[in-house]
Write a structure and sequence with these properties.
The structure holds two protein chains of two kinds. Chain A is an alpha/beta fold. Chain A is 42% helix and 21% strand. The longest helix of chain A is centred in the middle third of the chain and has 20 residues. Helices cover 72% and strands 2% of the residues of chain B. Classes of the chains: A alpha/beta, B mainly alpha. Chain B: It is a multi-pass membrane protein.
């Protein structure tokens, strides 16, 4: 899948975000093709989570715009973005801790329920009943799909880290999103849990037709899953392309290994030692 | 203790205590609502109650509205004032340390007292009578009518509030916001609206409590002290627990009444704060509170 072929589902254009005098993002731009798995990588502090928070609408960019399915959503508030079909998970799991797994997932449908009392009254009756049934079916499918049936009535706070991440994903899926944003979906997971999650991410795309945009540090997984990789460093996009293209990019290597090639660094070290000796 | 213990006296004191406790529970509910939604420890809850009572007083006396209309308008007006306070004083503090926000509510309390004293002076006033005057007899025990009807109103309102939390979607939104604001916001829950709504409804509940407290004991610019007992109630019950506010409200009401009836009025607050100290030592997060809650 090549970005730019179909019209992108999500476009970020010239995004600049600053906190006081510090620029977290500078002129960041990229596109997410529908049905793709797009990953944002970059060293710690590169601005990946700031970028995610701006796309969710938590932060307001000082310059730039965000388009979702062609429509400008830069000024749209987060709840409205959720309704349009943007769902996300968080780097430090953000589940509703006092509630059970099932309650957490059910809250995913909140975005689509009528907010107005009058709407709710009109909406009452048959149509509402059918809608509710459909939702329940979807929730059952999600629970099945993510293999969390056995824990559905457990409070989320007692679950292992890996399972909590899975519940968070289930809750996001229950919002029936068009784009699923995952902030470090496998951070802190062991090999087995990581493989499970990778499989789920692929299936979300294949079976549910949901576009995935993620931030991830696990390079093996990023390179295996992604169609498209965007590399951030110090708040700027330094590379953008297929995993193979990005891996070969000298700018990327520099960002991850410090200035200069490994051999060059080793050489400098030897020189320094020689002077001392 | 004398051989013939006066059981009737005990019963009457307990009933009076439950009456006061109902109002503690009701105001505690208003406090918990704000705390749950916004994580703000609102020290101005007693003053919000006072504002409701004075609004009602002003409407009934200066504008000559019939009492029922004065109460209605005062409750709605207080709701508006609650929304305004949240917007101008609390919302800008979003993300600041809890102590800073706490201090803002302390300031808010002084401002509200000042406003009342500017308009109505610090002279104590009486609300026009609006409850049936005939005392109510429960068995042989005598209950003052205001205490009885006050308790009834508190019980009904608490029942309604509990049903709303349980069955209305707004209640779910409130619970989700209480649990994780960021997650709630990203899931289509309008968190700022939940903030605003919780302050509005809490101010309305406090206003109703204020009108009843004022009807029982008169109104004055120091009636916000009632909020001090409410603070004890919610700390004992657990800051984020509606059930806790109810149980602790009744408990403190009864204990205060017992201490006042058998030991003398000056022991009322002593008993209250003794309970507070014991609870803080044994269960710092309150009887029903969430364990991870920050301590004051």
């Amino acid at each position: 899948m090549h970005p730019g072929k179909a019209s992108p589902i999500l476009e970020v254009e010239g995004l600049t975000l600053s906190f006081g005098g510090i620029k977290a993002l500078t002129d960041v731009g990229f596109e997410v093709a529908p049905g793709s798995i797009t990953t944002v990588i970059g060293p710690n502090g590169a601005g990946k989570t700031s970028l995610f928070n701006t796309i969710s609408g938590f932060y307001k960019p000082s310059v730039g715009r965000i388009r979702f399915q062609g429509a400008d959503i830069t000024a749209t508030r987060p709840p409205e973005r959720a309704r349009l079909g943007l769902a996300r998970s968080f780097q430090n799991i953000a589940l509703f801790r006092g509630m059970t797994v099932l309650d957490n997932i059910k809250l995913g449908r909140h975005a689509h329920l009528r907010t107005n009392v009058f709407d709710a009254l009109v909406y009452f009756g048959r149509a509402r009943h059918e809608e509710m049934k459909l939702r329940e079916e979807i929730e059952e499918r999600i629970i099945d799909f993510l293999e969390i049936d056995h824990i559905r009535h457990m409070p989320v706070s007692v679950l292992s880290y890996g399972l909590q991440k899975r519940v968070e994903m289930a809750r996001a899926l229950a919002m029936r999103p068009k784009v699923l944003m995952l902030d470090e979906p496998v951070a802190g997971m062991n090999r087995e849990e990581t493989e499970d999650m990778a499989r789920f991410i692929l299936d979300v795309r294949e079976e549910w037709g949901v576009t995935v945009l993620m931030v991830e540090h696990d390079m093996g997984m990023v390179m295996d899953l992604s169609d498209h990789v965007v590399v951030l460093n110090f708040g700027q996009v330094i590379a953008d392309g297929t995993p193979a293209e990005v891996q070969a990019d000298p700018e990327v290597i520099k960002a991850y290994l410090g200035s200069g090639e490994v051999s060059e660094l080793r050489q400098r070290l030897h020189q320094a030692l020689a002077v001392e000796a | 203790m004398s051989l013939e213990f006066d059981w009737l006296f005990l019963a009457e004191i307990m009933l009076a205590g439950l009456g006061a406790g109902g109002l503690y529970a009701l105001t505690g509910l208003a406090f918990v609502m704000i705390y749950k939604a916004t994580r703000v420890v609102n020290l101005a809850i007693g003053e919000m109650l006072m504002i409701g009572a004075y609004l009602c007083f002003g409407l009934a006396t200066a504008m000559n509205l019939p009492m029922w209309l004065a109460i209605l308008v005062a409750v709605i007006g207080s709701g508006g004032a609650g929304a305004l306070l949240e917007r101008v004083a609390i919302r800008p503090m979003l993300g600041e340390s809890p102590i800073a926000v706490f201090m803002v509510t302390v300031g808010l309390a002084s401002i509200l007292v000042g406003v009342v004293e500017l308009i109505w002076t610090s002279e104590p006033r009486r609300l026009p009578e609006f409850m049936p005057a005939t005392p109510v007899m429960i068995g042989e025990a005598f209950v003052p009518s205001k205490v009885f009807y006050g308790f009834l109103v508190a019980a009904v309102l608490i029942g309604v509030a509990l049903a709303v939390f349980r069955f209305w979607r707004g209640g779910v939104a409130l619970r989700a916001t209480a649990s994780d604001q960021q997650a709630a916001y990203s899931m289509g829950i309008d968190v700022p609206k939940v903030f605003s709504l919780s302050w509005t409804v809490a101010a309305m509940i406090a206003a109703i409590a204020g009108v009843i407290v004022g009807a029982v004991g008169g109104i004055s610019s120091t009636m916000g002290v009632f909020g001090l007992s409410v603070l004890v109630v919610v700390i004992v019950g657990g800051l984020d627990s509606v059930l806790g506010a109810l149980v602790a409200g009744l408990l403190i009401g009864v204990v205060e009444s017992l201490a006042g009836g058998f030991l003398g009025g000056e022991y009322k607050l002593l008993a209250t704060f003794l309970i507070l100290i014991v609870v803080l030592l044994v269960r710092p997060y309150g009887l029903f509170g969430t364990h991870e809650i920050e301590r004051l």
